[in-house]
Write a structure and sequence with these properties.
5-stranded mixed sheet; alpha+beta; about 120 residues; 5 strands
Length: about 120
């Protein structure tokens, strides 16, 4: 299983939804041009789509970018609100968000079990 480390010091969460047709280059350009952050820094940049049922995480790892994605089948991510373009989370808070916790209310998504892929 691939998950971000709980020990991460700075995770930047983009508050506005992004076009999920964007891949590595488009998201890296968004980090640099819109968020005014360094996409090559040792940090995670987290994005969601308008429906809030998908998350993409972009980060630079020594010699190249990594793009990680999670798609929910029935639930929605409880996206935090804030002032500005981003908020900063810890690695633990990001994992709570990925697990479905509403960081404001502390409730997870329902656990789902499927037998087949549709």
């Amino acid at each position: 299983m691939m998950r971000p480390s709980n020990d991460l010091a700075s995770v930047y969460l983009c508050l506005d939804p992004v076009d999920f047709r964007k891949q590595i280059n488009g998201l890296a350009a968004l980090v640099a041009d819109v968020l005014r952050l360094d996409p090559f820094a040792e940090q995670l940049f987290v994005f969601t789509n308008r429906r809030r049922d998908r998350i993409k995480i972009l980060y630079w790892e020594a010699s190249g970018f990594v793009l990680w994605m999670k798609r929910l089948e029935r639930e929605r991510f409880h996206w935090p609100r804030g002032e500005g373009a981003t908020i900063t989370l810890s690695g633990q808070q990001l994992n709570w968000l990925l697990d479905g916790f509403d960081l404001a209310r502390w409730r997870p998504h329902r656990r789902l079990r499927y037998d087949t892929v549709s």
